[in-house]
Every structure is written in structure tokens, then in C-alpha cells.
Automatic annotation (TrEMBL):
InterPro entries: Metal_Tscrpt_repr, Metal_Tscrpt_repr_sf
Recorded GO MF terms: DNA binding; metal ion binding
Xref: CDD domains: CsoR-like_DUF156
Pfam families in the cross-refs: Trns_repr_metal (PF02583)
GO biological process, one term: negative regulation of DNA-templated transcription
Family membership: Belongs to the FrmR/RcnR family.
Protein's UniProt name: Metal-sensitive transcriptional regulator
Amino acid sequence: MPDSLKIVEGRALSAQQKKDLLNRLARVEGQLRGIQKLVALADAPSDCEAVAQQMAAARKALDRSFVQLLTASIVTHTGNAADIDEARESAARLAALFDKFA
């Protein structure tokens, strides 16, 4: 996780959830930098397969980050709800986000 990012406490995600997600995103960022180097150094046709494989891995890692964000949000938002109706509203709103972006 970049040291320049200050994690603030809030109601969206806990500090630990934010830290875990930021660490995962930093790993994805590292994967993308590695892919950029592979592209820059690609010489033979077989190099394209290696690039494609790494791109697929990075995409999968980013998809996993998305799922981690939504599951953490569901846990936090429903757990912090004042009552069952608010918890249901939060769950429905997050399910709509999942449906929209997944």
C-alpha cells in the first residue's frame, strides 16, 4: 500500500477493510507494471501469449478486488444498520451495484 495514502475512518469500510483492499490493488498495480515491461520487451510471436496470460491474471485480480469491495461493504453496511429495514435497504443497494458492474 502506498505510504502517501492516509486511511480515514468512515462508515463505508472499516480501516482494516480499506487496508486489505489497498494492498490488493497495489499488487494489481504491480502486475500491470510487469505487463507493461513484457509488452515493451516483446520480440517473438510467443511473447504475445505471455502478455495475454499476464493480462488475464491481472483482470482476474482486479475482479477479485471488486468482489472484496462489495462483500466488505455488505458486511459493514448491514452490520452498522440501525434496524432490519435499513439493513435490507443497504443490501438491496449493494446488490444493485453488483448487478450493474459485475
